């Protein structure tokens, strides 16, 4: 008890520290020092003199010692080996090594060494704010379990914690706070200073210092320290803001030891009974299961849900069989759960407490009562904070391909090193006219070549590519909690959208009630091909109240079967329900109280108990008390001859999907299915209305909160079909067309009726062809009974029925039998729609094969949305856009999930630090995501209601991939050229001056920074971005550029060496002296570095052209002009400042300028030509793929 079985995600190893000074990097390492000193002493004695090489041997143990220390900082495994010893049992261990197992293809968790916390008999660890507890029965560390799956009877009859239970729970679960430590500047800088990237750069600086390049080395070191200090300051600022996001403690009432007590919210514990009341300026501090009363909550800050949600108590009669059912937080019981981070707008509680004392009264009503389920970082908001906290580290783009590319560059470097070593150790001793080479200088030459493989700027440039995409997204009001998903957006091929609230607006317009008896038929004709606009115009009047007489029960369902309530004098709730209330002209005069008019003689409906809408059930129900004459909308009172009869009775009012309510009706109209089909085809949202009068003998003395839902939702009287229309959002069709033009697959996943969904898909340009809907064969449809398997997916209980494709437009057509093999041919003529019922009858294999061909998934549950996205993920990268809690699972399973945050979060409940200045947004650093910006529902949150945000994210993802590929190409070219220059040319005596090297390095670093600032293209291209550096056109352009550069460099080198003195002798050990060869090589190398940026800038079709990146364009233009100025010697003083010697004659100068022009022109021209061919072929491939 108290632990979770989900431990397969992690593996644990136990360690205890070695005795002080006896870790491998302490006293035992002294043996290495002793051995080396003994060997050096023997060499000195044998040689009879002390040489510089002997000093180098003495540096060997120091270097090894430093490397061993750094290994313990870089690798958890190395630290465990060096400073710890393995233990078999956790009883003797002080630390645990946590090894996350691979559970996702696009998300990784770090391996960490964490201390063991021993409190009494309990052993536990904390890994990324997740607590793991040791279970002696299984001899394993397992995730701390909160009581989330017990039978309902345990929660309903809970009386809260006793004093001793509270003490035990405090020790087990800790305080209800978000504990985020804030390291000092020095501690964070120390962490950065031992990072591999920083150490590598410092090592390179030391090597250049040893080679007496003082300006270049000190400039690099200064820039390095300033950059790291800035990053440390940024991290501290981010952590400070995260700490400010914590919910401040406030007094709350809890039921402990048989009575209500006031405790601070940070002392709440799982198992507590807590009082819930309205608190306009604070978010709720924990996850609770509502046991008494109801609350209206604003979940905008948490899930992005724009509509306030009504949460009702889990109230069951004492003899209800449901008490033995287990709690289902994600499904059947989610409407009873209030999550941490939500804002309680209204509370009410009229229930009579049986097992606890009456809760305190707050405002006009007693506080609602809830059972605390989770606290701290394990709450819904805590998980969001945890996600933000651990995604705030340095982001980068890493892949196995990048490692392979670096290995290839390393091969070039090793070849160059081999050439240098061969010359220094084999050839040089045979040249008697030259002074012998110093081993130290030889070591420096080899080190320079090796370290030139990875430019010092490269790792941070990759981080900057992602960071600047995040900044660009923030400017569009798009916030990301998982930055590693930005490059994934560049690979997306399939775009999925929810319908209501995403493609269409939340606001609803009532178009009348259909299907009623002839004497109360709607004014709007539905026959023929009446459009939704005609129905709307004829069935409504301008003030939103329909001009159609309605029976009383129909009017009652529209007015009272809802989750609407009054907050500060304003009716709040689902726009659909507000529209229905307005359509019948009723008024909400109080909480759960509606009336037909203000004053005497009005019909009044008091909601006694509410069963909220559940996606899984596709319906909602209320029990109401009716008092009044029973007048229908624009009709007369119930009773013979219009006689007025005053009623005082209970009614059961139900609304939901036609499919869900049809089997619950007493009498089903003959035209039920055909009427529903006609209305759905017109693009309307259709709700079935039903009700019944509860006999007095069944309601007398009965607690309405204890009534059984099933008994209320049977034998219902049909009250008509409510027709609603929600307009398509302004940017929807335009966005869908752009996505389809760029050959993205666009599809809809909705819980709405298949016919309505197909009509909307046509209206938003998602489909043009005729629709086929997959349904069970008519003869077997009634016997089909899907069952839920252990993995949560639908399997067939006995025998899977035959599935058929039926025409939506012409039901008389012969159905086509479902066959996976014929799907491709079918989609050439038709657009496919897969309803949830048919989906539940498919095997996983069939769904994976079918999903890529379906355009509309309709009447699917939230769990089926997950299932669809998971199936699509196996074929391509997916993006999912949704707007509410029903889409959470699908949003999290997609590679890129976007939730639309359409309602503003109340400013009073946002943390004080959540204000973002314009300067922060416009800076190059990605601003940390704050509560109110992010949604727990998905990695991306858009503070708006348009699906156009998907275009911004796709464009930024593609630009990030292109930027990274551009970096690889530039780095590859520069690395190979540097290896050539430092080997072949250096051995010929060519050297660059300290000032020359510093200036060139400064320019290259500046260009790298400016390249990463390139903006995404304004339109989505039909081509797919190339994420591979081993693509044919990338390798070809690199090879051709390399041939041009090496050819020009060798030609210039030979041109300069032809004018050398005949008595020239290379001096590899001497200092830099300006000469003609050095001058020409510097000019050509500078031109090559400039042309590498000009030639490899990606631009069209995924990024804006070079002309749009003004800083880079101007910098490169100035640099190229200066290079040609040095070659043509138009500014002699500038040449002298750079230690460049004059040309011996005019012909030589002309030849050098020609070589410069050839290098820049040929490399840029060939690269652009190959790029244009690749773009053309990419477009053709995209068109071919789309046709297939």
Write up this protein:
This protein has 1188 residues and is of the alpha+beta class. The protein is 40% helix and 18% strand. The protein has 37 helices and 42 strands. The strands form nine sheets. The chain has an eleven-stranded mixed beta sheet, with helices on both faces. An eight-stranded antiparallel beta sheet has the order 22-31-30-29-28-27-26-25. The protein has a six-stranded antiparallel beta sheet with strand order 10-9-11-19-12-15, with no helix packed on it. α1 (30-47) runs antiparallel to α2. The longest helix is centred in the C-terminal third of the chain and has 42 residues, at 1146-1187. It is elongated. Mean pLDDT is 81; it is low at 1-7, 523-542, 781-798 and 912-923.
Q: What is the mean predicted local confidence, pLDDT?
A: 81
Largest sheet: 11 strands, mixed
Strand order of the largest sheet: 20-42-41-40-21-32-39-38-33-36-37
Give the distance, in angstroms, between the N- and C-terminal Cα atoms: 55 Å
The portion of residues forming beta strands comes to 15-25%
Runs in which pLDDT lies below 50 for 5 or more consecutive residues are 1-7, 523-542, 781-798, 912-923
Q: Helical amount among residues, as a percent range?
A: 40-55%
Number of helices: 37
């Amino acid at each position: 008890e108290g632990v979770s079985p989900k431990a397969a995600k992690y593996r644990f190893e136990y360690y205890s520290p070695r005795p002080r000074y006896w870790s491998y990097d302490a006293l035992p390492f002294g043996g290495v020092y002793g051995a080396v000193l003994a060997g050096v002493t023997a060499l000195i004695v044998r040689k009879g003199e002390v040489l510089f090489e002997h000093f180098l041997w003495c540096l060997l143990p120091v270097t090894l010692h430093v490397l061993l220390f750094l290994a313990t900082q870089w690798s958890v495994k190395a630290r465990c080996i060096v400073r710890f010893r393995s233990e078999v049992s956790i009883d003797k261990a002080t630390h645990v090594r946590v090894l996350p197992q691979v559970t996702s293809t696009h998300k990784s968790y770090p391996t960490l060494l964490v201390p063991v916390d021993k409190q009494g008999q309990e052993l536990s660890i904390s890994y990324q704010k997740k607590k793991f507890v040791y279970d002696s029965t299984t001899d394993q560390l397992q995730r701390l379990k909160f009581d989330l799956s017990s039978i309902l009877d345990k929660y309903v009859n809970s009386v809260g914690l006793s004093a001793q239970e509270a003490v035990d729970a405090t020790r087990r679960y800790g305080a209800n706070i978000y504990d985020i430590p804030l390291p000092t500047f020095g501690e964070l800088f120390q962490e950065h200073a031992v990072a591999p990237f920083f150490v590598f750069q410092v090592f390179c600086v030391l090597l250049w210092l040893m080679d007496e390049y003082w300006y270049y080395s000190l400039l690099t070191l200064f820039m390095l320290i300033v950059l790291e200090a800035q990053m440390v300051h940024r991290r501290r600022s981010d952590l400070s803001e995260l700490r400010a996001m914590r919910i401040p403690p406030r007094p709350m009432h809890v039921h402990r030891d048989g009575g209500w007590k006031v405790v601070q919210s940070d002392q709440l514990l799982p198992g507590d009974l807590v009082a819930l009341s309205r608190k306009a300026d604070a978010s709720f501090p924990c996850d609770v299961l509502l046991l008494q009363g109801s609350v209206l909550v604003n979940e905008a800050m948490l899930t992005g849900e724009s509509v306030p949600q009504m949460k009702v108590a889990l109230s069951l009669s004492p003899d209800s069989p449901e008490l033995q059912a287990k709690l289902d937080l994600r499904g059947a019981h989610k409407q009873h759960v209030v999550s941490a981070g939500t804002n309680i707008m209204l509370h009410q509680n009229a229930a009579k407490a049986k097992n606890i004392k009456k809760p305190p009264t707050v405002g006009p009503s007693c506080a609602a009562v809830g059972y605390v389920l989770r606290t701290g970082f394990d709450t819904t908001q805590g998980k969001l904070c945890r996600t933000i906290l651990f995604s705030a580290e340095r982001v980068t783009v890493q892949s196995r391909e990048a490692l392979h590319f670096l290995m290839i560059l390393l091969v070039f470097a090793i070849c160059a090193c081999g050439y240098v070593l061969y010359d220094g150790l084999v050839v040089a001793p045979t040249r008697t006219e030259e002074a012998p080479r110093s081993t130290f200088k030889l070591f420096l030459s080899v080190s320079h070549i090796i370290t030139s493989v990875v430019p010092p700027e490269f790792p941070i440039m990759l981080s900057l590519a992602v960071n600047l995409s995040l900044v660009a997204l923030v400017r569009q009001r798009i916030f990301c909690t998982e930055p590693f998903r930005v490059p994934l957006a560049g690979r997306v091929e399939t775009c999925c959208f929810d319908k209501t609230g995403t493609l269409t607006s939340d606001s609803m317009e009532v178009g009348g009630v259909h299907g009623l008896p002839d004497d109360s038929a709607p004014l709007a004709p539905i026959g023929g091909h009446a459009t939704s606009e005609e129905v709307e115009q004829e069935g409504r009047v301008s003030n939103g109240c329909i001009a159609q007489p309605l029976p009383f029960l129909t009017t009652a369902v529209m007015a009272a079967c809802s989750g609407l309530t009054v907050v500060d004098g304003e009716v709040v709730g689902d726009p659909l329900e507000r529209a229905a209330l307005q359509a019948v002209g009723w008024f909400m005069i109080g909480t759960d109280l509606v009336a037909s008019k203000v004053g005497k003689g009005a019909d009044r409906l008091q909601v006694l108990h509410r069963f909220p809408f559940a996606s899984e059930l596709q319906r909602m129900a209320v029990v109401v008390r009716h008092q009044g004459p029973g007048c229908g909308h624009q009709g007369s009172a119930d009773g013979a001859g219009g006689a007025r009869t005053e009623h005082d009775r209970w009614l059961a009012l139900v609304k939901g999907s036609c499919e869900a309510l049809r089997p619950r009706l007493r009498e089903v109209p003959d035209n039920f299915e055909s009427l529903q089909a006609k209305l759905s085809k017109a693009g309307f949202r259709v709700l079935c209305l039903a009700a019944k009068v509860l006999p007095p003998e069944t309601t007398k003395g009965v607690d309405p909160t204890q009534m059984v839902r099933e008994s209320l939702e049977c034998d219902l009287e049909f009250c008509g079909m409510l027709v609603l229309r929600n307009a398509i959002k302004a940017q929807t069709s335009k966005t869908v067309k752009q996505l389809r033009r760029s050959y993205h697959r666009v599809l809809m996943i909705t819980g709405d009726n298949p016919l309505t969904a197909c009509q909307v898909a046509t209206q938003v340009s998602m489909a043009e062809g005729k629709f086929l809907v997959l349904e069970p064969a008519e003869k077997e449809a009634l016997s089909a009974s899907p069952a839920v398997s252990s993995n949560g997916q639908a399997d067939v209980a006995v025998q899977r029925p035959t599935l058929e494709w039926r025409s939506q437009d012409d039901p008389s057509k012969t159905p086509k039998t479902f066959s996976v093999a014929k799907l491709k041919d079918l989609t050439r003529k038709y657009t496919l729609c897969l309803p949830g019922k048919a989906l539940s009858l498919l095997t996983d294999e069939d769904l994976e094969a079918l999903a890529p061909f379906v355009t509309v998934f309709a009447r699917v549950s939230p769990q089926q949305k997950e299932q669809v996205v998971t199936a699509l993920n196996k074929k391509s990268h997916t993006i999912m856009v949704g707007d509410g809690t029903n889409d959470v699972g699908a949003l999290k399973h997609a590679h890129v999930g976007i939730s639309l945050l359409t309602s503003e979060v109340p400013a009073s409940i946002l943390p004080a630090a959540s204000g973002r200045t314009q300067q922060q947004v416009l800076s190059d650093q990605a601003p940390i995501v704050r509560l109110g910006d992010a949604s727990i529902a998905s990695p991306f949150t858009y503070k708006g209601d348009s699906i156009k945000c998907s275009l911004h994210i796709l464009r930024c993802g593609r630009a990030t991939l292109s930027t990274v590929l551009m970096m690889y190409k530039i780095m590859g070219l520069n690395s190979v050229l540097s290896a050539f220059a430092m080997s072949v040319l250096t051995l010929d005596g060519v050297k660059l001056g300290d000032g020359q090297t510093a200036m060139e390095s400064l320019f290259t670093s500046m260009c790298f920074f400016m390249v990463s600032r390139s903006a995404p293209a304004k339109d989505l291209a039909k081509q797919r971005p190339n994420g591979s550096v081993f693509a044919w056109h990338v390798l070809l352009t690199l090879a051709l550029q390399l041939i041009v550069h090496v050819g020009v460099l060798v030609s210039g080198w030979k041109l300069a060496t032809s004018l050398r003195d005949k008595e020239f002798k290379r001096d590899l050990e001497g200092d830099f002296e300006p000469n003609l060869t050095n001058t020409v090589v510097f000019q050509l190398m500078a031109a090559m570095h400039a042309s590498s940026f000009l030639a490899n800038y990606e631009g069209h079709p995924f990024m804006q052209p070079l002309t749009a990146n003004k800083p880079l364009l101007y910098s490169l233009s100035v640099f190229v002009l200066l290079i040609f100025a040095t070659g043509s010697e138009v500014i002699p003083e500038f040449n002298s400042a750079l230690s460049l010697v004059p040309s011996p004659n005019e012909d030589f100068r002309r030849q050098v300028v020609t070589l410069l022009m050839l290098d820049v022109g040929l490399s840029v021209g060939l690269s652009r030509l190959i790029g244009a061919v690749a773009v053309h072929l990419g477009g053709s491939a995209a068109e071919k793929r789309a046709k297939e």
